[in-house]
Each structure stands twice: as structure tokens, then as C-alpha cells.
Amino acid sequence: MPCSSLVKSSEDNGALRNFKLNESTFLASLMPKKEIAADKFVEAHPEFDGRGVVIAIFVLAKYGMTERWNGKVDLVLEDMHPYSGVDPAAAGLQVTSDGKPKILDVLDCTGSGDIDTSTVVKADGDGSIRGASGASLVVNSSWNNPSGEWRVGYKLVYELFTNTLTSRLKKERRKRWDQKNQEAIADAVKDLADFDKKHSTVEDANLKRTREDLQNKVDFLKKQADSYDDKGPVIDAVVWHDGKLWRVALDTQSLEDDPECGKLANFTPLTNFRTERKFGIFSKLDACTFVANVYDEGKILSIVTDCSPHGTHVAGIASAFHPEHKCDLINMSYGEPTLLPDYGRFVDLVDEVVNKYRVIFVSSAGNNGPALSTVGAPGGTTSSIIGVGAYVSPAMAAGAHCVVEPPSEGLEYTWSSRGPTVDGDLGVCLSAPGGAVAPVPPWTLQRRMLMNGTSMSSPSACGGIALLVSAMKAEGISVSPYSVQKAFENTCIPVGGLPEDKLSTGQGLMQVDRAHEYIQKLQNVPSVCYKIKINQAGKLTPTSRGIYLREASHCHQCTEWTVQVEPKFHEDAGNLEQLVPFEECIELHSSKKEVVRAPEYLLLTHNGRSFNVVVDPSNLSDGLHYFEVYGIDCKAPWRGPLFRIPVTITKPKAVLNRPPLVSFSGMSFLPGHIERKYIEVPFGASWVEATMRSSGFDTARRFMIDAVQISPLRRPMKWESVVTFSCPSAKRFAFQVEAGRTMELAIAQFWSSGIGSHETTIVDVEIAFHGISINKEEVVLDGSEAPVRIDAQALLSSEKLVPAAILNKLRIPYRPIDAKMTALSADRDKLPSGKQTLALTLTYKFKLDDGAEIKPQIPLLNNRIYDNKFESQFYMISDSNKRVYAMGDVYPNSTKLSKGEYNLQLYLRHDNVQYLEKLKHLVLFVERKLEEKEVIRLSFYSQPDGPIMGNSSFKTSLLVPGEKEAFYVGPPTKDKLPKNSPEGSLLLGAISYGKVSFGAQEEGKNPEKNTVSYQILYQVPPTKLDEDKGKAFATPCTKSVSERLEEEVRDAKIKVFATLKQGTEEERAECEKLSISLKSEYPNYTPLLAKILESLLSQDLEDKILHNKEILRAADEVVNSIDRDELARYFFLKTDPEDEGFERTKKQMETTRDQLTEALYQKGLALVEIESLTQGENASALDSAEGARVVDRTDDHSAPDTDSQKDPFEENFKELRKWVDMKSSKFGTLLVVRERRSGRLGTALKVVNDMIQDDGEPPKKKLYELKLSLLDQIGWRHLVSYEKQWMHVRFPVSLPLF
Question: Residues 6 or more apart from 417 whose CB is under 8 A from it?
Fold first, then answer.
């Protein structure tokens, strides 16, 4: 079948191997151009070097970018990286060959680099402002700021860096930190040694405490080295308006060793990149380039960095020049499998961009080959996108890949994804070079890097298309994605000689020069694409874009298909000028009429036309067959196929023998060769055990093995393995299969494996099907005591039935407690059509009573990106301090969280408010992974009463073909349910029924490790009623009515007193007046005195000494009102719980004890505060502790402990110590004060650290601030800097922006 009249022969592909590798050809092979005739085209047309064309490069869901191209199609695969970006400082990306800027704009399309700069500050008289991090920053006096308003924000710099760069910086920073820490340890050890040398025996209590303090310092420093976790420096950002533009400056001192470097005032201000095209570098240490963009009137600063060399590498392959910003092409080098092809929000937007705005969209087909139907979304599954496969030429193999002996001719990379799509479309449109040595960011510490993948072939194609578009603009030819795609597809050089090779390579290797010749002849032809819709005759659904006969039922009978061809014009096409006159007489051709029959002619008008196609595969042999029905313009046959209808038939081999075994012997392999075997998986099979034997070779051989099945409304079910045979041997595999559906087994020798050996590898494969059929794949235990019956049978051969089931996850449902709808900024989130993007933020609250590993689950939205109608979904988990513990997206990650309460915010976007409104009450599950001790292993029974009676246990059985076995799986006993599993929650796990013959022994015990397992659920029922609830002892009241009334009045007065405000002098005077009145009315009544003390603590007076003396007096009143001897006797003596009034007395005594200890605690704080203030100290040691009022007494190294010199603080401390654990989080602060005023800073630090570790609640900021002050007082500057960085992690000012 001719591809086009312009394609003379396939000898051009062979010509690509007629090269001689010298220095010149070697360097040229690193950036492939010859393969797509780009070099020849530019040589012939130097003025069509890409000028006038703008390319937008979408790099891996991280950044979008528009840049110029200088005509150099500078062009490697490690797979599709998760995130990326473009570095404007990379080699070759600054200017074009004529000196014009190459990169026009750099945009962060994800918001991951956003900094909240909504906070406005003013500079003081010295030109200083307070940064968002809390640092004092000096602004440059030469910066023009008419309003005087400086917007501030901050960012943890590691959030902007790649994992690779972060890892490098962490190593270098750790090395410097370790050096400083070792110096501090050496000093601490020396101090301890000097003390021991001076004091040979230590018996004095004070000396013991001093030595303990010295030892604590040594221990603390050693532990710091073990727990070191670098969260990275903090950079401050400042944004202001200079009267014309928004300006940005960063303070990066935390990245520098030299304190004079990185200062804000020394930063050269930036503005939005597209305005001045300037970028910055954080520091010489990281060498990381960034650009800045300001949005929403200065409220959002976007710092754009790259998150992988991948994006810069892609940009180096395809780039363009244009004085304006209208985009002509988009390159997108990432994707993934999809549930539905050509469907989803992203596809809708792509269709609009292509059909309405005439933008050419190019994308990678994927790196999931060699099996068929592995093309990824969106590149390989979307009709509006040109999907590109990855080709390797002999020159590329010899040069870029440095193989010993290149292949004799070009071929598709082994891993390049193949078509067709699950709905029959070809999937791969064309191929381009899929490897290159291209520019990478400076932070990689190299200029260029080898990468290969369809991520590289896509920009290679995009660069070639840019050359053609440049020529079209220069020659006045209207640019249309429809005509451009057709020009390239109809002028490709075929790769491979078989029809089915199109499923790998598309129409072949693109050729720029031939496409140019084609487009010149096409300029007077209307720009039309032909939309194909196909239904099996008599059926309305499903609708497909090709004919894909994969299952056995379709491959043995004749089928009829209705094909609808609809000409599609661009949205700006005129009715009278273009649509009405459109009429084409089309001659229909079939590549093999014996199998695929179609009408001979078709008259096509704007409204489209349908016709029938009959496919008869009954006489075809087993295996892969590919055919096409294509339409040729009768008046202009030179145009080649106007549309193609792919017909793919994978006729499977039936497995009729029992036991079901199938063998493929003597398969011969050379580098790049692929064997595809199609097998009808017999009914009753659920897993495969395969053996692969290799022979006949010397050097090692690498093979890629894929097994793929396709089911409706599911992503292709794929098992894959890469194996290396270092010598002739055998490998065994086991994987799950779906009964009754065709399985493709693709075995490929890697394209570069065995090159130079000239020996054929012989491979034998034996496949044995196994299976245990059951009556329900998902087992649901409804929460009752009843077990669930399971019917099992072996249809193929005898199998050992070994049921195993576990419940190891708890899933609790939550509804949002808050839902907020906002319109995003118009300058950033408004679609070209004028639609404003809206965001819905849902807030959920959940609590963990113990630390756990959790994962949020949103069944409606999870695990779908391109086949999802919502354009984004992100979540963020934080605590009450706003510390973020986890962030995620459509693929949620497991996160380990400590005990406590958490907020989860879910962020969804769409331009349709009605869709978002429907999600305001979206159910979200928090899935908790159970600890090993909590995992429930379910039991099996042979009788329905087994769970209750405790007998008739079922363990194992031998299933004989034709016989059915029934047994029961019992629910978990209620005492086995994990705590905190509320009613309505689900316990999830896995259940399996058999195991592979060569598996490990443990696999049978854990169904999740078995080759085949199914989901099992248990619905948590309502908890049983507490029979003891409400049975508390009722104590008869012995008081008279008047006494009870008097107590009620008294308590009411105290309650009113507790609610009085004290914000002003008048309010405080009224409060004091009432307290005096109440004290005279109810003298020595402890609850009243405790409320008066509480009232004083809430006041903030200027006269600190007087205030603390009042607190001291009030605390003494509380202490003196309590009979401490009686209280001590109560807690010392055991009381009979059955005594009358036990519960009431216990509650009273515990309340009195709490009032006593609180008074003693506050008295201690007040004593130290008065002491420090009277001594003229300037700072309080407890400014950071509960609002208390304490400062250091570093000059007093021995607080009085003797009876001859009473110390009020020490006496109070000893009294408090009788009643409470002084190391608790509540009272430990006073212990820190005691150690600190005694000069024992190491012990004080140890106490603070222990309090932090023992505190089960979210971390308290006061404790970390206290720790910081102690580190600063000791002089350990490296630890002060380390803790300050962590403060921004633990206690951020606000949550980060989505």
C-alpha cells in the first residue's frame, strides 16, 4: 500500500547507515538531525531556520515554557520523569544565532514554587524591614518604591530544588556541620575531663550536679549528630512596585558561608521573566538558576526552577524564535496509562487549543513497550495530538550510545510504546530520534547529558515541525495543525518492512524536506481533519477510532462495522466560504481485500458520511495482523491518504490440552528483535507459571518481557520484567491473568544487547496456566457474626486450595467541615476562551490516638489524571501549628504521622461552578495501615456455625477438575478489632486461594504476596452498649436546702467573676473590687482563690515587678488555703472504691491538688521574674515559656541549697516536687529555670529535650524557643542555625499555597 506518492522508496532509511564515524559525524550524532532531514532542509533553506515560530514546552507536569528556536534541532530515556523544568542558563538556550533572546517566557504551571507575599511591611528609619522568616533585612536605598510598601514572604529552599541537587547540598552542608559539631564535642569533652582531673572524687551534691551537667552537654551533642536532618536554608523574598513594574529580591544569606554574601541589598532585582528575560542564581554552591514571576497584584511570587535535567534537555532539542508570544507549537514529554482514550479534562483543553487556536500539539507516545497497546496518555491516545515514537539510527547507536557495532539499519527503541490504543486508533503517529546528548542545567555540574526516551523523540519532532512552520509563515502558507500533521504523516520514511510495524513506528520516520514539498502543493487545499467514529453494526456503544479485534470471539467470525467520517474545520471557518463548498470524491482502498472489505467510493461533504466495513479474520493464522482502509482524493491522489482506518487483529492461540500448557520453542533473537505470541487464556485460569530458557550465545543477553491483557474500562493489565542471561540458563516467572481474554506475550532482545556478537540467541518458553475459580472476587463481610460462603473449583487441573485472608488496613470516612470556593487570579488562571478557573478547597479533620501510617483516599478522583474531568487535585496534611506533614495529588502517598489531630485540605479546580458545587460534601477516606500486632488473620470453616462454635476449621484441600468445594470465611471477633475503628469504617485486606508451585513458603501465609489475591472488606458494626454506663454510685445529699442554695449562689458568683474582661484599667479595677468582696464573703475558699490567681495571670501590665508580686500574693493565698497534710494523707492511703461518696471525694481531692500545684508553679515563675527584674536583667528566660516571666542568671552558678541561706525559689520548688513529676511537659519548664539559674545549661537542655520528646500533643512552640535560647546561651551557633531552620518547618506562619 503506497503511503504517499512523495515517498519514492524505503532506500532512504538504509541510506542512514551509510556513514563513517569521524569526529564531525560523531559530534553530529549526539544531536540527531540527519535522521529527519532537518540538516538538509536548513542547508537548502537557511532562512527557514525556525524564525517566526514559538514553541511551548510542557516539561513533566512542572513547568510550561515558551522559547525561540535558532534552527538547530539539537537534541536520552531513563523513563518519564515525575517532574521537570527548563533552566534558562543552560548551554545553548540564551540567544539565537542572530543574537535574539531564545527563551521568551518561563512559567510554573503547578504553583509548587509559589510564595505568599500578601504581607505588607514598612521600612524603619534605618531602611530595615522584618522579613517573613523573622529576619531583619536591609533594603537597598537605590531601589525605587514610591508606595513604601514591601511585600514579604519566605520559602524553604529545598522545596525549589531537585532531589539530586538537594542530596548534593545536604552532603556538603552535613560535612561542614559535622566539623563544627565535632569541635563543640571536643570542647565539651575537654571541660568534662578538666572537671574530673580537678575533682578526683565527687560526693558533694552540687558537684555531682555540675558533673552531670557537663556530661549532659557531651551526650546532647552526640545525639544531635545521630538525629541530624537538614530541612534546608530559608530564603526571604521581597516584592515591591517601582512605579512601572513589580520587582523581586531575595535574601539568600542562609545559603552562604560568608556572612557578607547573599544579603538582600546586594541582590540585583528581577521582574517577570518575559519583561526583561533575566534570571538569578541562588548561590555558587548550588548553581541553581531561577526566574521570578509576580501575580495577583504582588500577592503571589512564583519562583521557577527546574526539577530535573529532563526539561532543559527537552528544550535543548526543540526551540524557536518569534518576536511575539503567540504559541505555534506545544511539546509535552510525559504521560501515563489511561482508563479511557481520548477522554478527560486535559483532552478537552487540548482539543480547544488545536481546533480553535491552531496550535500544533506534539507529545511523547510513552516508554512502556515492547508490547502492543502500551501507548500512554495523552500523546498516544489523543486524536488532536501528534504522538511520537522513539527511533534510533546506526549513527546514534555508534555515537551517542557508544555501542561496539551499530545495527545495520535504524529501528524503534525496544522500550518505545506501541499502539494501537484500546479503541483501535494507531496510537503512534510518527517517529523521530529518541536519544541525544543535550544541554542540562548548571546545577548538574556539567553542560550536556545523554538521555533517551520518547521524551526526546517528541521535541525532536517538534523542532522539525518548527522548521516547516517557519517556512510556511515565510511563504505565506496558512498554518494549520491538520495540514501540518498530514504533511508529515504522508511523507514519512517507513521503518521496518511489515504492515504491523506501523503499530510501533506510526507512519514512519518524519522527513522535514519532504513535508515541505508536500505542504507547498497543499496550500490551496482546505485545512481539514477527518474525524473517525466506528461502531459495530447494530450497536451504538462503544464508539471507537479504529477496528481492534483482539479477543478470540471476534477473530473467528466475520463482523460488520459502521464507519462515520466527519470533516472537521477550524472554529473560525466560514459557513459560506469553506463549509458549504466543501465536497470531496474519495476512493476507498483496503490494504487486503480478502480480509477487510469496504465500498469503492465515497462522496464526502461537510456534514460527513458513513459507510460499512466488513472484516473477516477467519482464515488468518494465529498472531498479529495489521490492515488499513484509507481514502484517496480522486482529484488529487498526490495528497496520499486523507484518513486511515486502522484494523488490528491479534488472533490468539487456543489452549486445548489439559493440563493447559503451551510452548514456543526455538525462537531466534538478534538485537532489537521482538516475538509476539497471542494466547487465549483458558477459562478457569487466574495465574501463569512461565519458564524461559536461553541458549546459543556467548556474551550476556538482556530481554524485555511483557504480558498484556485488555479489559473494558480498565487500564491495560500489564506484567513486565527485564532479565539478563549472563550464560545459557532458565528463568521462571509467575503473574496474574484474566480468564477468557487474549494475552499478548512480547519477548524482545534489547536493541543494543548482543551487538557485535553476531550470535543468535535461541529462546524456549513454556507457559502453564493455573487457576482456582471462585464465586465472588471481592468478599464483603457485613459486620454481622455470619461468615461468607465461598465456592471454589479448579477447571483446568488439580490445584491445592490453601485459603488465606488478612485485614491490614482501616479506612475511616470523613465529610468536609468547611468548603470554600474561590476564583483564581485572572492574570494566571484564565483560559484563552475567557473562562475563569475556580478552586474548591475542602477541609477535613481527623485524629490519630496513636502514631500510624496513613493514606488519604478519594475513590471518585484517585488514580486518574488525563482521563479525569477535573483539571487538578491536590491535598495537604497539617497540624494545628500549620506544619505540613504531607502533600500529594491524584496518586496519594502513605505518610507516617504521630499521635494528634490533623487537618487535611483537598484542592480541586474547574471552570464550571456547578461541577464544583456537587463536590462540596465529597467523602474522603483516611486509610490507616495497621501495625503488625493489629493485623487480623481471618479463619476459615467448613460449617456456617463455625465462627460461633469454634470448631469445623477449614485449612486446605485438593481441588479436582469438575468438582466444587465450598467453605466459609469468618468475620473477625470483636475483641480483635483495632481500637479507634468507628462504626461505618472499613477494614480492608486481601484473600487468596492458592499459590505458585515455586513460591516461597511465606507467600501462602500472606495473601498480598501471592501472585493472585483479591480484596476483602469488613464493615465495622455499631459498638456494643456499655452495660455499666450510668451505673455510677448515687450519693445521697445530706445538706439542707438553704445550704445547697448558698453553695449554688457562691459558685454562680465565682463563675461570673471568671468571665469578667480585663482589657482596660476600669475593667481591671472592677475585677479587683469584686475579688476583694468575694474573698471577704468566702475567706480561704480555694476554688475562688484559684480563679483570682488565674485572673491575674491573664493580665498584661507595664509594671512587671508589681504584677508579679500580686501573682506571688495570690499564689500564696491558694497554697495557704489548702490543708496539705490532709491532702497528702488522702493520696498516700488507699480508699475503698465502694465507699459511699468515693467518686465525689476523689474528684474534689484531685481538683484541690491541681489548684495547689498550679499555684506553686506560678509562684516559682513569679519569684524568678521578680529576681531578674530587680537585678536589672534585660531579657526573660521564659519569654518563650507559657507567657511566663523569667530571665537567665548565668552569673549565679550555685543556687543556695543550705538551710542557713533560704532561697524562696528553691523552697517553693521542693514543695512542688512533692506533688508532681518535675520533668513533665506541664511543670518541666520550672525545672529548666532552676537548672538555668544554677548555671547548669546542659542539664536544662536535656530537660527541655525530654519534654519535647514526651509531649504527645502537637509540638509546643514555647519549648523549642526555650531550647533555642539555651543553645544560644551555651554558644553552639551551628545548632542555633539548625534549630532556626527547623522552626520554619514546625511552626510556619501560614500554610503554603496550593
Answer: 365, 366, 367, 368, 369, 374, 375, 376, 380, 389, 427, 428, 454
* CA-wise closest residue to 667 among 693, 641, 647: 693
Distances (CA, A) of 1105 to 1171, 1173, 1193: 9, 7, 17
User: Which H or E element spans position 459?
Assistant: helix 454-474
Q: For residue 625, what are the β-bridge partners?
A: 649
Per the CB < 8 A criterion, the answer to whether 378 and 347 are in contact is yes
Is residue 480 within 8 A of residue 328, CB to CB? The reply is no
Compute the C-alpha angle 303/305/307, nearest 5°. 135
In this predicted structure, the answer to whether residue 236 has a pLDDT above a threshold of 90 is yes
Tell me the three cell numbers of residue 465: 515541525
| DSSP character at residue 1169 | H
Residues in the chain: 1298
Overall average pLDDT of the 974-988 stretch: 92
58, 365, 434, 895, 999 from 706: Cα distances, Å: 29, 17, 21, 32, 20
User: pLDDT for 540-558, tens place per residue?
Assistant: 889 999 999 999 999 999 9
Strand partners, 847: 901
Mean pLDDT of 368-378: 95
Instruction: Look up residue 494 and give its three cell numbers.
Output: 517507513
Which range among 314-318, 751-755, 1091-1095 shows the weakest confidence by mean pLDDT? 314-318
What was the pLDDT predicted at 143?
96
Q: Is the dihedral of CA 957, 959, 963, 967 positive or negative?
A: positive
User: Using an 8 Å Cβ cutoff, are 279 and 290 in contact?
Assistant: yes
The C-alpha angle with vertex 651 and arms to 650 and 652, in degrees rounded to 5, equals 105
Provide the 8-state DSSP code for 831: -
pLDDT, tens digit (0-9, with 9 covering 90-100), for 896-928: 999 999 999 999 999 899 999 999 999 999 999
Of residues 1175 and 1220, more confidence is placed in: 1220
Reduced to 3 states, what is the DSSP secondary structure of residue 141? coil
Q: What φ, ψ does residue 288 adopt, rounded to 5°?
A: -95, 125
pLDDT band at 1062 (very low <50, low <70, confident <90, very high): confident
Angle of helix 1228-1237 versus helix 1261-1274 axis, rounded to 10 = 10
Taking residue 336's Cβ as centre, other Cβ atoms within 10 Å add up to 17
Judge whether residue 285 has pLDDT over 90.
Answer: no
Q: How far apart are CA 404 and CA 397, in angstroms?
A: 9
- What does R_g of the chain's alpha carbons equal in angstroms? 38
